[in-house]
Design brief:
By secondary structure, the chain is α+β, with helices and mostly antiparallel strands. The chain has a single domain (22-251), classed as Jelly Rolls (Sandwich), CATH 2.60.120. The protein is built from 3 helices and 16 strands. Bound molecules: calcium ion (3 copies).
């Protein structure tokens, strides 16, 4: 194969990835009704019916986590393992945090207070459980072929924040190589309100990691904050497109990248954020 057409093909592919963008769906307000249309618009853009697909691999349907099916034994005051939604309930996501772990809030009638002990700050979008990292405001979401350790990527991610009172909550997307490809702050809802923020790739971008920043504060335990002066924010439903396996690069593309390696390293750095 002549060298020139191969180089042109590689450059075209690279330019396409760099100029892509995401379609944003967002809303905020006092109650579930205020954000339901934005959530539904995101659902429609991602695909699948109004009911998310079952566990395991499900043929490209949308995936959702509302936390409400997590058993009492893994809810407040117990921590929820970060791999719960890839092992026990295989939906192809695992969570990590710089904090000490994760917790879903308890149902009424249990020993712990509902809503992490903040009845005047939080409400649910889907009753009764909410989700938070413990000792950190950061939750990172990695994607896998459901039920396996095979890395995967998705094309869309959205979630519901609870009690966003300043510019204190955001999502960031990174591709499979760790490059930042999207960031956006959540809209402010006012005290005890709900905010939906979701984004869908429209040019073939693949999300390998989602970093969620939920508020400026941290929850240490029920009713106890790391800093009482800053905005505390927790999370409800997560929605995302089915995680798909990261494709192996074609042999010809690898060869072309090898030939190009020198000039790519010397070229101008492109800011993808
Ligand atoms: Ca509040
Ligand atoms: Ca819920
Ligand atoms: Ca707050």
């Amino acid at each position: 194969m002549p060298r020139l057409p191969m180089l042109a093909a590689v450059l075209l592919l690279s330019a396409s990835a760099a100029h892509g963008s995401f379609v944003v769906f967002e809303a905020a307000g006092a109650d579930a009704a205020a954000i339901t249309a934005a959530r539904d618009g995101f659902r429609t853009a991602v695909g699948g019916d109004t009911v998310a697909g079952p566990n395991g691999s499900f043929g490209g349907q949308r995936r959702e986590i509302n936390w409400d099916g997590v058993p009492n034994t893994l809810a407040d005051p117990a921590p929820m393992p970060g791999d719960f939604f890839n092992s026990t309930s295989p939906r192809g996501v695992e969570f990590s945090t710089p904090g000490t772990g994760f917790m879903v809030s308890t149902n009424s009638g249990q020993s712990s207070p509902v809503l992490f002990g903040f009845p005047n700050d939080f409400q649910t979008f889907s009753a009764q459980r909410l989700f938070t990292a413990i000792g950190s405001n950061v939750t990172e979401v990695s994607f896998f072929l459901p039920g396996t350790s095979t890395a995967a990527t998705t094309s869309a991610f959205g979630l519901i924040f609870v009690d966003v009172e300043t510019i204190s909550a955001k999502v960031e997307f990174f591709d499979q190589d760790g490059a930042a490809i999207f960031t956006r702050d959540a809209l402010q809802s006012g005290n005890q309100g709900l905010s939906f923020l979701g984004a869908v790739a429209d040019a073939g971008e693949r999300i390998g990691l989602v970093r969620i920043t939920a508020g400026l504060n941290t929850i240490l335990s029920n009713g106890n904050l790391g800093n009482p002066n800053d905005d505390v924010v927790v999370m409800d439903d997560f929605l995302y497109a089915e995680p798909l396996q990261v494709p192996e690069p074609p042999v010809l593309l690898l060869l072309g990248l090898g030939l190009l390696a020198g000039c790519v390293r010397r070229g101008p750095r492109r800011d993808l954020t």
